[in-house]
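A reminder from the course coordinator: this example appears on the midterm review sheet, so study it carefully.

Given structure:
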């Protein structure tokens, strides 16, 4: 049918004939065979190829079409289109350039910006691991990869982040190694001793169990928390359950270990931290411990942080006319304050010894 249609219209002055894989069913071999046959039958005509990505083969089919002699390819930004979409412009551009040696009049440094713009206008968000334009495609998570880069760019390819006006990121989390930490410290211009690096890395791996990825913006909070911490364990928080709701008072149930004994307490207050503070204050008051006055409560989140960003809580206390600060870091804002309070209690108990 298609052959007959083209044969019957070839003298109408049509500039381009569109040959679509409308349902995205074709394989690269089928594309190559079909388009080669069409171009051999009508060498004087100009054909376009319009792929779809239902089998995830759109970019591979584009390469087959170009090999067959097609000069015009239909693409979309972020693979937008019916069902699974059309061919991604970003993927097609880099594949034709890197794998087929073609020169394209595309400014690759603008591809990422254009992708984000289309995301905003279309309301269709791409996956973080989308080739070329995804948020995570230039992020090294495994420590062994970061170590390879550190020892001589072992993981450098033609798909470098600089090519697309981006930067390589070394994610921090439970899979991190020393190399990932060193790369992030270098980026921030921070130097740490080997012992302090080990302490920071230990905290990163521990935090990675509760937070998927720790960003470089989180790192200064972690470093400050580790550098301030001291190995005082006069009292240990074993469990803390805080319950908050709309238009109701928050409650807290805690379990601590103090001088080898386990103690339990509960409290309530206007907010999760207030409930915890009420519980721990009543529990310790029974043993004659007096809480200092809370002068200031600061919460910091990295600029541009996500909803799971680490939170740094710095509390200023006053005891016997002297002010001091303690810090807590956690992905849960209330628990960051809880950790700062527990550090204060341990410091006070140590000072009283």
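Designed residues:
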């Amino acid at each position: 049918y298609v052959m007959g249609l083209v044969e019957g219209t070839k003298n109408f002055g049509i500039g381009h004939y569109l040959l679509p894989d409308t349902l995205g069913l074709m394989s690269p071999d089928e594309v190559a065979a079909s388009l080669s046959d069409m171009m051999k039958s009508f060498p004087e005509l100009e054909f376009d190829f319009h792929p779809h990505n239902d089998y995830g083969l759109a970019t591979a089919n584009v390469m087959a079409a170009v090999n067959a002699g097609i000069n015009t390819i239909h693409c979309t930004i972020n693979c937008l289109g019916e069902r699974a979409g059309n061919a991604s412009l970003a993927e097609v551009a880099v594949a034709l350039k890197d794998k087929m040696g073609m020169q394209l009049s595309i400014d690759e440094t603008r591809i990422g910006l254009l992708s984000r713009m289309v995301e905003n206008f279309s309301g269709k968000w791409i996956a973080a691991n989308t080739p070329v334009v995804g948020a995570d495609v230039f992020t090294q998570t495994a420590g062994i990869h970061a170590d390879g880069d550190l020892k001589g760019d072992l993981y450098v390819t033609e798909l470098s982040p600089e090519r697309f006006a981006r930067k390589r990121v070394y994610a921090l989390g439970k899979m991190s190694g020393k190399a990932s930490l060193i790369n992030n410290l270098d980026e921030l211009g921070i130097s740490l001793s080997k012992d302090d690096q080990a302490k920071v890395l230990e905290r990163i791996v521990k935090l990675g169990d509760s937070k998927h990825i720790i960003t470089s913006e989180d790192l200064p909070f972690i470093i400050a928390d580790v550098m301030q911490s001291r190995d005082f364990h006069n009292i240990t928080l074993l469990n803390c359950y805080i319950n908050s709701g709309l238009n109701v008072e928050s409650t807290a149930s805690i379990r601590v270990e103090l001088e080898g004994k386990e103690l339990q307490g509960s409290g309530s207050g206007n907010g999760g931290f207030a409930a915890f503070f009420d519980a721990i204050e009543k529990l310790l008051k029974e043993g004659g411990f007096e809480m200092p006055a809370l002068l200031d409560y600061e919460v910091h989140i990295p600029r541009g942080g996500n909803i799971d960003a680490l939170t740094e809580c710095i509390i200023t206390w006053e005891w016997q006319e002297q002010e001091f600060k303690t810090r807590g870091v956690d992905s849960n804002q209330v628990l960051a304050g809880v950790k700062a309070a527990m550090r204060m209690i341990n410091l006070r108990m140590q000072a009283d010894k």
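Residues 235-352 form a domain with the Double Stranded RNA Binding Domain fold (CATH 3.30.160.270). The first helix runs from residue 2 to 9.
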